[in-house]
TrEMBL record:
Protein name from the UniProt record: Glycolate oxidase iron-sulfur subunit
Source organism of the structure: Stieleria bergensis
PROSITE patterns named in the record: 4FE4S_FER_1, 4FE4S_FER_2
GO molecular function: 4 iron, 4 sulfur cluster binding; glycolate dehydrogenase activity; metal ion binding
Keyword 4Fe-4S: yes
Record gene name: lutA_2
């Protein structure tokens, strides 16, 4: 698409945004893939429409405020990317746009409060734990609270699991086949610490030594995807320092975090750390990708051969499937688990509505997508729905509960680990 964006006017991310806009040929192949276009039915809420809006703002033809509602309604699910024959890097464009123009966007008080609370608590496990405990106490009053706070309270679980303190190193069991450093995540480590426990268990049983770098922090994805570039840079810089170089890979077990860490070269563009960030991002991979490349899963006990058959529906988290193009490895690993019978979810390519803090910022669209996803999961007739992202787990569990379904929501690593324990 022809444009008159002057990249140098928009800081270090200007070039990436101009290049992405140039690639779009306005063909519209992305429209059927876009959940918000399906929900809202307007060109301005489609990928093509949003690219046009961003182009016009960056050219100085359109006020930021006019484009804002449509860009805020974008999930950032990047389902438009695999659908695009011109390979427009929509995710890079959207994140860069939000980082560059987000601060100029006018926001209501309720939205500012939600954003402040999310930014001040979610990336910090200690603070998030205190906030989650306090929130649970006032959760019964959610219905009489301002809607901005009620939405956040409703997402809190009724019970918080006990804190799990991880060691700095877990040796491989049996013959060593590899060594990785694990990103333990922030909100995930509070809401579902068992995911890290299961991940370490599966890796070590497959001959992989796991190190947990002590200086690691939030991956920065939550900040980056809502346009807080300064915070995202800080988190990225800290992780570049914290993770060691003497490992085969830096593994993640949350799709959003893995995707965010792959974006470090863009987040740190124009800084002295850009080339380090490129090398770092090359070493990041989802735990399922690492295990799949290692070979077949090993060490299931003989007793697991007689496990009762369990139907497991696999949910593709957008930031694993669309952003990192990881589709086959989790399915291939689950298919090796004794007793597991894999099921596909109809419309599986559509986002569940979680999308980072989207279900806090845009509860109406998120609720609709969550309901539809829960309905499709129920239609599979599975006993378990597995996935690789804590945000999707929270969202899907909430909507399955609302629908009265007893389908168990598990992380892919938990499904595999359970077969080792049988
Ligand atoms: S499919 Fe790609 S090139 Fe076509 S309109 Fe969508 S983003 Fe642009
Ligand atoms: S990121 Fe998702 S919601 Fe946003 S335009 Fe692309 S497909 Fe639509």
């Amino acid at each position: 698409m022809r444009h008159e964006i002057e990249p140098t006017e928009h800081g270090p991310l200007g070039e990436a945004m101009a290049a992405a806009v140039s690639k779009c040929v306005h063909c519209g192949f992305c429209l059927p893939a876009c959940p918000t276009y399906q929900e809202l039915g307007q060109e301005t809420d489609s990928p093509r429409g949003r690219i046009m809006l961003m182009k016009e703002v960056l050219e100085g033809q359109l006020p930021v405020a006019q484009a804002a509602p449509h860009l805020d309604a974008c999930l950032g699910c990047v389902a438009c990317q695999p659908a695009c024959p011109s390979e427009v890097p929509y995710g890079d464009l959207l994140s860069s746009y939000r980082a560059t123009k987000g601060a100029q966007q006018p926001r209501r008080l309720g939205s500012r409060v939600k954003r402040f609370l999310s930014a001040a608590t979610l990336p910090f496990p200690g603070r998030f734990r205190i906030a989650a405990w306090s929130g649970r106490l006032v959760k019964p009053l959610a219905s009489v609270m301002p809607s901005s706070l009620a939405v956040m309270l409703q997402l809190l679980p009724d019970r918080l699991p006990a804190k799990v303190k991880l060691k700095s190193r877990y040796p491989a069991i049996g013959k060593q086949r590899g060594k990785v450093a694990l990103l333990t995540g922030c909100a995930q480590s509070v809401l579902a610490p068992d995911i890290n426990v299961a991940t370490i268990d599966v890796l070590t049983r497959n001959g992989v030594e796991v190190v947990i770098p002590s200086g690691q922090g939030c991956c920065g994805a939550l900040s980056w995807h809502v346009g807080d570039h300064a915070a995202a840079k800080k988190f990225a810089q800290a992780n570049l320092q914290a993770f060691p170089s003497d490992v085969d890979a830096i593994v993640t077990n949350a799709a959003g975090c893995g995707s965010g860490m792959h974006e470090y070269p863009l987040i740190l563009k124009g800084t002295g750390s850009e080339s380090t960030a490129v090398q770092f991002a090359d070493r990041v991979c989802d735990v399922t990708v690492y295990l799949d490349q290692l070979g077949e899963l090993t060490g299931f006990p003989d007793s697991s051969r007689s496990r009762a058959s369990v139907k497991v529906a696999y949910h593709d988290a957008c930031h694993l499937s669309n952003a990192q193009r990881v589709n086959q490895p989790p399915r291939s690993l689950l298919a090796q688990v004794p007793g597991v019978q894999l099921a596909e979810i109809i419309g599986g390519q559509f986002c569940c509505g979680s999308a980072g803090t989207y279900n806090i910022d845009q509860p109406k669209i998120a609720g609709s997508l969550g309901r539809q996803k829960a309905e499709q999961v129920i239609r599979t007739d599975a006993q378990v729905v597995a996935m690789g992202n804590i945000g999707c787990m929270t969202q899907i569990e909430q909507h399955l509960n609302k629908a009265g379904s007893a389908i168990k929501v598990q992380h892919t690593m938990q499904v595999i680990r359970d077969a080792y324990l049988d």
